[in-house]
Amino acid sequence: MEMNSKQDKLLRRLRNKWVFRLFTRKMVPAAARAGVRFVEMDGEKCTILVPNLKRNRNPFRSMYFAVQSMGAEMSTALLAMFHLEAHHASIAWIVIDFKADFPTKAISDVTFTCVDGEKVREAIQRAAEGEEAQVVELKTVGTTSDGTVVSNFQFRWSFKKRG
């Protein structure tokens, strides 16, 4: 995938663990507190890790659903940030709905992977070219290191060209 200089700069910043920590502290302090970490992104897929820290666990010794939600949303939001860098148009974006299911308890680190980069890119392109809001559903799956699926999320994002 070809990247412009803004996209390349964003990827370099995300890949630098210290810069990513500063980013989360400033922009998403709850994610910083939870220890959310960037793993990888290439424009088509984004992977985020949420560690199984004591502060992230509920009284049942599994990871809070809200902590999992932060990691899941970030795996979709960073793809959107990446593709928004490809446009000169000012585009507003927001989560308008989400659904989740938790097939098993998350009792270890959870990795969230979203592979809907192409869907994001197309929605942002349509938003940049038109006046109507573009809604896209992005899926992300939370797995443990052994591949066990502990959560499935679907986020509905809306992208609309500003004014």
UniProtKB/TrEMBL annotation:
Pfam families membership: DUF4442
SUPFAM superfamilies: Thioesterase/thiol ester dehydrase-isomerase (SSF54637)
Superkingdom of source: Bacteria
Protein name in the entry: DUF4442 domain-containing protein
